[in-house]
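WP5 quarterly update. Target: 3-oxoacyl-[acyl-carrier-protein] synthase-1. Source organism: Nannocystis exedens. Length: 334 aa.
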Amino acid sequence: MNEHPLMLLCAGACTSIGLSVAATLAAFEAGISRTVEIEEVAAVASQLELLPPEMDRASRCHWLACAALLDALEPLSEFRELRMPLLLATSDEHLTDDPATLHAALAGCEPRITLERPERYHFADGRSAWFSCMETAARLIADGQPLVAICAVDSGCDLSSLRALASRGELLDDRHPDGIIPGEGAAVTILTSEEGARRLRRTPWTRIRAAARGREQRHFRQDRSSLADGLTSVLRSLRKRQQGWRADAIYSPQPGVVYWSRELTMALLRNAALCPEPLNVVSLADGLGDCGAAGAALAVSLAALKIHRGELARVLAYGEANLGHVGACLLETP
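Structure tokens (predicted):
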């Protein structure tokens, strides 16, 4: 990826605070958030108002993903026909999700777009799943695919998911001050090469300068305190491969609980050369809640739009799943 960086051509999103990536960014930067009290679990969640509270998880994910896809395709509306593989990034904890049904639903969202299903198209790696998809996208593009789409989607706002979180004591409430506010959302990113962007006569939103993945053995779902070894190694890999590269901001999708905050602090102290001065960490969970597997893709999409607008030049984006999968990438002005 260092010799031939990937280009993020454009992106789309759907979240509890915006039905597009532009609307989500505007609301987030205005300090807007949407939390709804869920009487069944005596806690709050960041639900999309348009979706009925009783809608099940699969239906919510399908709706969010289709909305994000249509938003992502809007900048390419002048092309009457497009064909590209579609990769899916989903939860590492809802293994009953049906990726084939979701892929088919997305393939039917826009008739002028043909979304193909590669042999390996689904990655259930939670908040780091987008980075797993990106590695596969890089190989597909190197093999001649002009465009590759990645859809990352998740919801923790259906009643079944909320009850499961409540039973584990993970929801933010008076008894659990270190709990989370569940969120929901989807992001679709369309990747290409530098040559692909030139052929389409489009200016990409951002260049993905480098990326790395790893694994945290002392992950969120086990009992020992994290030593941040997984995130540290991922950031160290990026730092050594891109010496002298320093971010203007760090975009994080992690919930604002002690485990994740402590881990990020330790990893950044060991990789200070990558960090902005002064430190500038943008926490998406402050406005969107915990969007799970959609989190990293949303972080990348919002950061990419900021870079595209000239408001940032370099961003470090990362994501770590509850079961320990870690990914990060360096975004910069193309």
